[in-house]
Amino acid sequence: MLTYSLDAPSPSNATVDPQTGVLAWTPTAGQAAQTNTLVLRVTDDTGLSATQTVRAGPFDSNPAPPRISQFRLTGSNLELTLLDVTPGQVVRVEATAALQNPASATVWTEVHSFTWQANPVVLEGVISGDHPAEFFRLNLSGQR
After folding, report:
1. Number of other CB atoms surrounding residue 125 within 10 Å
2. Strand partners, 83
3. Helix, strand, coil shares of the chain as percentages rounded to 5?
4. What span, in angstroms and rounded, lies between the C-alpha atoms of 55 and 29?
5. In this structure, is the dihedral angle defined by the CA atoms of residues 23, 29, 62 and 9, taken in order, positive or negative?
6. What is the pLDDT along the chain (144 residues), one digit of tens a residue?
7. DSSP per residue over 3-25, as a string?
8. Of 2, 11, 13, which Cα lies nearest the Cα of 39?
9. What CA dihedral angle connects 23, 56, 28 and 71, to 10 degrees?
10. Nearest Cα residue to 57 out of 11, 16, 88
11. Interatomic CA distance for residues 128 and 65, integer angstroms
């Protein structure tokens, strides 16, 4: 029987299933920006073992843009489900009553802002009667 484990200097938030050897690891922002060393050890039932060192990173700091999987406006309620947003990223839901030409002349009003924590998220009741909105956009640039 084989048993799997991780040796130092593997990241403390990395885990390996001791029976299957399947590695699970979601790098933190700090880990994503650097090269990380993971050391996988396999040990047999006689006590013999071997290691394999793997280096991973740095990872792309510009992930794919988020996707909208659900967008529904009912009265003044906006129900929005987003996928693939980076945890910790600020998301602003903005609205306007009309689009202008040129597009840079369009005035967008922030109707809700939140810091992304998990996938997916559903926002309800973020549109008030003070915003006669016809068009919505998501601003993930961190700028107003």
Report:
1. 11
2. 67
3. 5, 45, 50
4. 17
5. negative
6. 999 999 999 999 999 999 999 999 988 888 888 999 999 999 999 999 999 999 998 877 666 677 777 777 766 666 777 777 777 777 787 878 778 777 777 888 777 777 777 656 666 666 665 555 677 777 776 554
7. EEEEETTS-TT-EE-TTT--EE-
8. 11
9. -80
10. 11
11. 27
How far, in Å, CA of 39 to CA of 92, rounded? 41
Q: Is the pTM for the entire model greater than 0.85?
A: no
Residue with tokens 């839901």: 93
Give yes or no for a contact between 57 and 32, defined as CB atoms under 8 angstroms apart.
Answer: yes
Task: Give the span between the Cα atoms of 134 and 92, in whole angstroms.
Answer: 16
Say how far apart CA 2 and CA 49 lie, in whole Å. Answer: 9
In eight-state DSSP terms, residue 31 is H
Any idea of the CA torsion for 101, 104, 108, 113, to the nearest 10 degrees? 140
Q: What pLDDT shows up at residue 130?
A: 58
**Residue 80: closest CA among 117, 131, 142, 125:** 125
Please, which residues bridge with residue 136 across strands?
95
Give residue 69's identity as a one-letter amino acid code: S
